[in-house]
Amino acid sequence: MTATDTQRAIDAVWRIESPRLIAGLARIVRDVGLAEEFAQDALVAALETWPDDGVPDNPGAWLMAAAKRRAIDRLRREQMQLRKHDAIVHELEDALQQAAAAGEAALDDPFGDDLLRLVFTACHPVLSTEARVALTLRLLGGLTTDEIARAFLVPEPTVAQRIVRAKRTLADKGVPFEVPAGNALGLRLASVLEVIYLIFNEGYSATAGEDWMRPALCEDAMRLGRVLAGLMPDEPEVHALLALMEIQASRTPARTDADGAPVLLLDQNRTRWDRLLIRRGLAGLARAEKLGGAHGPYALQAAIAACHARASAAQETDWPRIAALYARLAEVLPSPVVELNRAVAVAMASGPEAGLAIADALERSARLAGYHLLPAVRGDLLAKLGRNAEARAAFEQAAELTRNQRERTLLLERARACAD
User: Poorest-confidence range of 22-31, 87-96, 155-164, 177-186?
Assistant: First the structure.
């Protein structure tokens, strides 16, 4: 194996193993920041050792053993004499001794519970949304600070500060490293699902920049969703969110043309949709419904996505059912964005005038002031009604509001088409 091959192997192992490593260490040291530092120490050890000795048969177990040894050395070196640090050292030593007695496999015990604790800690509501997203991608996605910064088009120091402050906040607030129980579980799970879907959405429709999509972020979000579904198999909304992401991601190959320009849903070549992702998504939705979650917010959104996935051609789409699902979604998840989407569905089911009435009501309420998709939807509906001058003004307003260059180009093209 060449040095390059070894480096690639280390990168791949780190991406897979680092969440379990941090989770396992956090359970012992009860500090996510400290756990990540010890995990990073293990990575340094791998970078020093593996190029000469080769990648071990069980790299995850090797990394965990190295992290524990380095943690013991470091805690002793820093002469942490407090009782809690002594206890940590003793626990780490016990774990290593037990592993030595049982063989290496003991170090690779299932980390499901620890991983679940890490998920809920990284997505704790005490953190800002931006901090939860950054910390989740760092601790559970295995992304570097630079990778997160590039994904969200923000400076690397900004992301680094968010992560540092997030870890400090968790420590200062004394956030326990545990899975919430009882009524708290529902609220905390909603926070976790929100973070994962935010990551997916930023990849599916980039807020800013030159590219309309960032598929790598979608992949990261789906990977987190699959991990969570494996850890919480009886939670319908977890399966529903994963189903929603998989069905939406199935359209990725058809959402842009050869030049990277956006292709709208009704114009997409549906033979290019990923049928495997659709099958997985439909199966996940069925599981969520079987678990009694048919009317959860993510299940309803997945059901809407499934209506599109089941239509082999745009004209075969069941728009009345989609409009009804959006009406139900507006009841369980009241939101002006949901209402805007309902306007589109109603327009397709009952005509553009009916949809425009909903969109105009949103405009009068100013609940979506500054949101570029409101004038974009109004422009589309006005154009269908032949009110071209108003449509052009709406598209131009939408183009001014969006921060995505690809989307701005599309909107200006539609504005020019209204003038022809």
Answer: 87-96
Assess whether pLDDT exceeds 60 at residue 93.
Answer: yes
Check if the beta carbon of residue 118 is closer than 8 Å to that of residue 23: yes
Q: Which candidate, 361, 386, 389, 385, places its Cα nearest to that of 374?
A: 361
Contacts of 91 (CB under 8 A, 6+ apart): 28
Spell out the alpha helix ranges (H) of 179-274.
183-204, 215-231, 236-249
Strands (DSSP E) contained in 3-146 are: none
* Residue 191 contacts residue 123 (beta carbons within 8 Å): yes
Q: How far is CA 113 from CA 26, 104, 228, 419, in A?
A: 12, 20, 11, 60
State both tokens at 89.
Answer: 């050292």
From CA 144, how far away is CA 56, in angstroms rounded?
23
Contacts of residue 399, defined as CB under 8 A and 6 or more positions apart, other chains included, come to 372, 408, 411, 412, 415
The region of weakest confidence among 100-104, 123-127, 169-173 is 100-104
| Among the listed residues 298, 270, 272, the one whose alpha carbon sits nearest the alpha carbon of residue 284 | 298
Phi, psi of 276 (to 5 degrees): -65, -45
Q: Which two tokens stand for residue 30?
A: 């009860």
For 83-88, the CB contacts below 8 A with 24+ separation are: 88/28, 88/29
Tokens in use for 415? 């504005």
